[in-house]
Amino acid sequence: MRLAIVGGGISGLALAYYVTTRQHDASRFDQVCLFEASPRLGGVIDTRLWESYVLEMGPDSLVDKPGGAVELIREIGLGDHLIPMNPDAKPPLMRTTDGWKPFPSTETRSYSLDVGVHLLVERLGDRLKSVDIKLNRPVSRVMRASTGWYLDGDDTPYDAMVLALPASVIPLILEESGDPLSWCQHVQYQPRAVVGAVYRPDSFQALDLVQHTGFVVSPQVGLGLTAVTWLSSKWPYRRRSPYIVLRTFWGPPGENPGAWSDSELLRRHQQALEALAGLRGAPLWHTIQRLETALPQVDGRVTIEPIASDHGYLSFLGPYRIGPGVSDCVKAAAEEADRVLAWGQQRTLGRRR
Ligand SMILES: Cc1cc2nc3c(=O)[nH]c(=O)nc-3n(C[C@H](O)[C@H](O)[C@H](O)COP(=O)(O)OP(=O)(O)OC[C@H]3O[C@@H](n4cnc5c(N)ncnc54)[C@H](O)[C@@H]3O)c2cc1C
Fold it and tell me: Of 9, 121, 109, which is closest to residue 72 (Cα–Cα)?
């Protein structure tokens, strides 16, 4: 049997890992292929380095839940790289039009990786020796075959296929309509931008604020800024930073920060930090990321079922399945691996009878 996984973010990678490590003689995929549109694996996991200082432009905080990312990290031998959140950092705040307020934190048992979350992606990639990973390979069409599913540019159908893709991409590439896809319209994306930057230690007048893990900003404040993470306060990275390393998140309702130029984003980033944290001076270094399809808002009515029969299996995987976090995606990938392997076993048994 052949399995295709489309999408090389943490969902697709974790699925490939669990399928190849959990499969058994009664349900075996002789060929597992992973198709990724971009030149690199990891999707929104995006660790950037400045002189070996870690700047996460995507997830930095991995919640320790059963079956989640922290368990997977230990399973693949990266336990020594786990770092708990800095116990001396002050908890997150919320900026409202009335000033600063405490913000309820959900990150009590969170970890990161001492050299950046991208280490998880690299190690998973190394573990997938038996998987045929195709980078720079966007999939633009998925169609039914008499048995299984075809991808554009591939003559042989796959018995099973899992689309580990943003929900907004699925109706654009999948030639299927009606009920099986109706859930996609209940998953909404808001374009976002992230600005990461490194400052000298004396750049901020609000010295107490910098010692918190970060803050969120209510939309009424009107800056377009949604949140700030003080990365150098939050994580005891292997290389302790004398500098202040931070990131700002942009995604005001009804606006598209992805359309702002780099200089416009940096200007807003500087202005907001001047107004809220007493910033003085330019960053030593900065970097920008734009995200069209990250952190979906999922309507509670969403139920996602595979399209499965004796003739083939097609399923969907991503932050819309269990929840938006990396740990949710890893847990959903493990469940999906068990489900597609159970389907394979049923089919093998059916054919033997
Ligand atoms: C800025 C930011 C901060 C976050 N912070 C945290 C955090 O601190 N903690 C936490 O737990 N979670 C966090 N999250 C959420 C979490 O990172 C994501 O939900 C999770 O990484 C999503 O992984 P994924 O593989 O499902 O999707 P993605 O990472 O979006 O991967 C999808 C992949 O599919 C590929 N693709 C798209 N179209 C095609 C195509 N047609 N053909 C082939 N490939 C295609 C893309 O290139 C991409 O690699 C954050 C997310 C963002 C954006």
Answer: 121
